[in-house]
């Protein structure tokens, strides 16, 4: 009886039904699908997800936040945690993000980035390039297109790529957002070619998004299961649905 009781205790101790995940804001809309599919394979799993800019999430990890898996918007933030001793592994690429240009103010987006020089365009919303890789990519695209100096005074920085989307829809003339958000059923009223267009990927460095298991997740078997799920075929299928590349 004692042996049985001890075995039961050890079994419970070795399994944790909760998993705390820090994820870059660009995966917000894909996460409902991720949760649903992961739960099919792990019915007892409870995924607690905190979404935000990668830079801010890194700061939270370093300040003791109890995250067990980190899904960054680039490789640098994820690998930085590994190099600093906060992650169990070097980052693996789980998806490649795309930048979209969005406007609900009737501007002709078929002109490409040249539309930003229109005097009627007063505000250009991007994510903070210091903490959000999609913001970095936007600035890089402006410079590579040769228009940065002409439009830099119009740029307004949002706290995250999610906030950039919100601000663009509420008040911005044109915004640069994660293309993934536009493939959500919740955004179906906005049409590609009219309300948003994909930015030429040649204008910015590939947004390779990295995932790591954090030290807090070392003994949580769900962390490894989730990591493998994201990198596996089911995870890839979800990200493809939301417009990511590989």
From TrEMBL:
InterPro entries: AvModA-like_subst-bd (IPR044084), ModA (IPR005950), ModA/WtpA (IPR050682). GO terms for biological process: molybdate ion transport. Keywords: Metal-binding, Molybdenum, Signal. Molybdate binds at residues 54, 161. The keyword Signal applies. Belongs to the bacterial solute-binding protein ModA family. This is Molybdenum ABC transporter ModABC, periplasmic molybdate-binding protein. It comes from Campylobacter iguaniorum.
């Amino acid at each position: 009886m004692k042996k049985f009781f001890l075995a039961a205790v050890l079994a419970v101790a070795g399994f944790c039904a909760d998993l705390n995940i820090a994820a870059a804001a660009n995966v917000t809309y894909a996460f409902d699908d991720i949760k649903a599919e992961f739960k099919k394979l792990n019915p007892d799993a409870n995924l607690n997800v905190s979404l935000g800019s990668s830079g801010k999430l890194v700061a939270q990890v370093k300040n003791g936040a109890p995250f067990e898996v980190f899904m960054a918007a680039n490789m640098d933030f994820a690998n930085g945690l590994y190099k600093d001793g906060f992650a169990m592994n070097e980052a693996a690429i789980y998806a490649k993000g795309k930048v979209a240009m969005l406007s609900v103010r009737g501007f002709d987006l078929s002109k490409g980035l040249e539309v930003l020089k229109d005097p009627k365009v007063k505000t250009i919303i991007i994510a903070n390039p210091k903490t959000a890789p999609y913001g970095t990519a936007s600035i890089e695209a402006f410079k590579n297109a040769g228009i940065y100096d002409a439009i830099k005074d119009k740029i307004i920085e949002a706290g995250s790529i999610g906030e950039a989307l919100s601000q663009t829809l509420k008040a911005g003339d044109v915004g640069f957002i994660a293309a993934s958000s536009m493939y959500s059923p919740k955004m179906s009223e906005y049409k590609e070619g009219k309300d948003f267009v994909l930015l030429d990927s040649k204008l910015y460095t590939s947004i390779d998004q990295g995932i790591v298991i954090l030290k807090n997740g070392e003994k949580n078997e769900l962390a490894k299961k989730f990591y493998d799920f994201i990198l596996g075929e089911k995870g890839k299928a979800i990200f493809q649905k939301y417009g990511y590349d590989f």
